[in-house]
């Protein structure tokens, strides 16, 4: 017990803006799992955590719905022309702010662009930002956090301090400062910024779960049998420590998509001619009184996407957490 | 206990230096702020050079940082471009943001924990499902959309509140902005409390308490809640810093002249002194809040003793 | 040290209080009309960027305050923009180089100090001197000795301008380093305001609470949030305040200010955001104003980039100009608060002042087919795409840049021909311009300093002028401007300036977009609201109640 509470890496976990905190704190409950009475090795048939979880998920309606939504999103991100025939960059100012009409179910935005087409095409960049940022954060975070947790000592303390530093800086503030100098109109600066300020969150989780997994009997056994560090880390610890990272990452994915919109609202998100929900939402926000449809559709699409990822993460967490079963 | 606090305080020093250095470098990356001061024309080179010298911008970054930190320790946070002392800006901005944060935290505690307890005790019940869904919706909609919608509906269409906050920014005016600021965290607190309550409900000590025949109320408040609140308090504690610095969006929507506003202005004008000064204080708040949270643990969980 | 500061400040405050009570007795008999001359109105404001010194304020928000608390030698008529004598009894010259100024008697600052010739000379010397970091110092650049007090590099060798001499209690002489016939007309610019001794004796206290000689005095000032100005009862001028005072409230976002106006939380918004213009008639039922202001928006080109400065480039520039549907954009995006530009000046100058409707000719008309042809003839767009640079932080430029790009894309039939290129902050935007790092056309807005055609041309297109951001250079243009400046006959001078403007047109040195109007909306409490040609509300004439 003292070990756990002395290294405040495990307890003070928040900071990536409000939006990121859920992941950290909820995962804490999870990361404790293997210590608990149920986690010390399932009795009876040795079924893996993963097959158990999968069996659970298949029956969970929340999982099915959110997975379907996400599949749909991925498909239209890859091939938007499947359901939208127009060109999102073709706009006619004469039709600015007009409402719904035949062939243009969502109406037109302030520049006279078709809102339906833009909403469909907007999925690509939003999903790209979410997925790439999450992959980057998860990779960097779990490698650094995992190594620090496994080897401990000086590098561990150093990493803990560094994560503290990053947690102390409000994320929106960091975005304003770092992204306001960017002139590139690709998605990479935004993703890079999210990885830069997001990895400590995952590294903290990864570190915690590696420390827990390290103390398991089978790891001690492997070590006693003379297995090398890398073998222990890859074969024995990683598979058992990765669950919390996956959960947090899924939930974080949704929040990254929402964060992109907030950054656009503050004028430092993605830049035209990129089509993204964030850009459209922020462009529509002053018109909320005159032409609410301009705001409603992209914001609705964004909310549904974020919701789908958070619910997916939620379902995965429930499935991976034997205590709540 | 004493040793623990001292060690934690010592650990704060590198974190403090690192965080201020990081933000200092970040603001420096933004480049030369002088050009923005001359309107739509070129600053004449002589004045620009002299301004740079006066703000210490002609020196290498590390030297600027050392000078700055040296001044900070003597209580001099520098001067903003409009000729005002940064400490003066702080003295007007922080009280406003502190009030806003208090309102937000109160919302989190009162509404968040109540909803969390109710849903946690009734898992699977319709109340539980609908609250859970509601929290997800709140999390999914970006704060600025929520804020703009509430401002439009409550402030303009229905006229229940003033759409913006006056310079005095008293508690009454800050209720809606506070709710907007707290909304996402509020949803988290609800979910966190719910999970924690549901988990602890099945623990041995609760079963024992029930078996002893204690009244339900006493079991919930004295045994269940006290233990379940630990992760919630962690969250709220660390959220204080995030709320204060993250109020940029909320303060912008409701025209509140607090920390978020000053930071936003500071960044737009690339005013290193303002931005670094405010962030320095925010980092301190964050570190101290974290320490307090950890100390609160000992109060809440009798099993924890700090050596 | 701190104690001392406080003591002087307190003494200053006491003096103001005394002055106020001494003159308070007979102050309220000039109200007239229906208004309550004691009532205070609230108005939207933005946080001034620089300290509120007259020679250090170069944007509208600080200018608003200076316009209320200062009166200079000249004042631009709020309606016509013509420069009229204010504190100047007369300004004489025989050679357009040496001027003799006589200051009217009876004027004083609101702390009781009299306004003398010395008040002006001290203020101007302060404004010009390099060591005071005044951002508008270049306004004194025509005065002899400026190169000594404000050298381009190195240390200054004099503290005062040799061209300024106090010759009596109320008279001083100005010697210019070159002929400048309309120089007296520039003296209405706030940088030329007089300053009281208190400014120099206790600068820190003055900055906290500026003291001037205008119809209002500052009651309290919370930086970044609010400034309360109150009518100065002892004000000796004719343009006394018709209301009890003005509370300026800082807004970060003018949409919020407008929302506040609708909710009855604010009396006056002097920049109605484009997004709200569609509702403005219904929301305010006529309490809305949309008048021309001396502001023109253009697109400048980086002439230091050889892609934009080769033979045939002017055809590409003209083609781009003709691909912009100005009327549709001003009607839709700006709801007629901008007027399509047909020259490079502003209608507020009037025909007599040099504005010439249609000088631009077909180059400013929307002709998509011809535009396409011209761009092709000129060798096509450099790099196949134009990226219009603008700053994303203020002024909601994104909307019109996107609209301009869509218009160009539609005209050229290529949806990638033009994209916006936002730069995060204004400072960074200016940095890129100053460092000659722009690669495509970029936003250039020009708000006149004084209503003279010279001000719309020389600072923007003269070789190496302070606001010639595109670094365009043309010998013919420079020659014509020089001739015009030394011309003593105003009509002749203006026609020479127009000839120079035609050189700008023939090269399409910048694409004129539209003339910006000032817009304002106000609450039911107010009447007699007007905007001056600088799009600043004429506060002293507003009636409350």
Automatic annotation (TrEMBL), chain A:
Localization of this protein: Cell membrane
Domain of life from the UniProt record: Bacteria
Source organism of the structure: Streptomyces spinosisporus
InterPro entries tied to this protein: BP-dependent_transpt_permease, MetI-like, MetI-like_sf, OppC_N
Protein name in the entry: ABC transporter permease
Domain ABC transmembrane type-1: 123-313
Transmembrane parts of this sequence: 62-83, 127-155, 167-197, 241-259, 295-316
Membrane topology (UniProt): Multi-pass membrane protein
Keyword tags: Cell membrane, Membrane, Transmembrane, Transmembrane helix, Transport
Family according to the record: Belongs to the binding-protein-dependent transport system permease family.
From TrEMBL, chain B:
Keyword Isomerase listed: no
Localization, UniProt: Cell membrane
Keyword Repeat attributed: no
InterPro entries: BPD_transp_1_N, MetI-like, MetI-like_sf
Protein name, UniProt field: ABC transporter permease
Superkingdom of origin organism: Bacteria
Pfam families assigned: BPD_transp_1 (PF00528), BPD_transp_1_N (PF19300)
CDD domains xref list: TM_PBP2
Keywords for this protein: Cell membrane, Membrane, Transmembrane, Transmembrane helix, Transport
UniProt membrane topology term: Multi-pass membrane protein
Record-annotated membrane-spanning stretches: 12-31, 98-119, 131-154, 174-193, 224-249, 275-300
The species this protein was found in: Streptomyces spinosisporus
PANTHER family, A to Z: DIPEPTIDE TRANSPORT SYSTEM PERMEASE PROTEIN DPPB-RELATED (PTHR43163), DIPEPTIDE-TRANSPORT INTEGRAL MEMBRANE PROTEIN ABC TRANSPORTER DPPB-RELATED (PTHR43163:SF7)
Domain (ABC transmembrane type-1): residue spans on this chain: 94-297
Family according to the record: Belongs to the binding-protein-dependent transport system permease family.
UniProtKB/TrEMBL annotation, chain C:
Matching InterPro entries: Peptide/Ni-bd (IPR030678), SBP_5 (IPR039424), SBP_5_dom (IPR000914)
Keyword Signal: yes
Record-annotated Solute-binding protein family domain positions: 86-467
Entry annotated with the keyword rRNA-binding: no
SUPFAM superfamilies assigned to the protein according to its UniProt record, in alphabetical order: Periplasmic binding protein-like II (SSF53850)
Signal peptide (from-to): 1-22
Organism superkingdom: Bacteria
Keyword field: Signal
Pfam families: SBP_bac_5
Span list, region Disordered: 30-58
Protein name as annotated: ABC transporter substrate-binding protein
Organism: Streptomyces spinosisporus
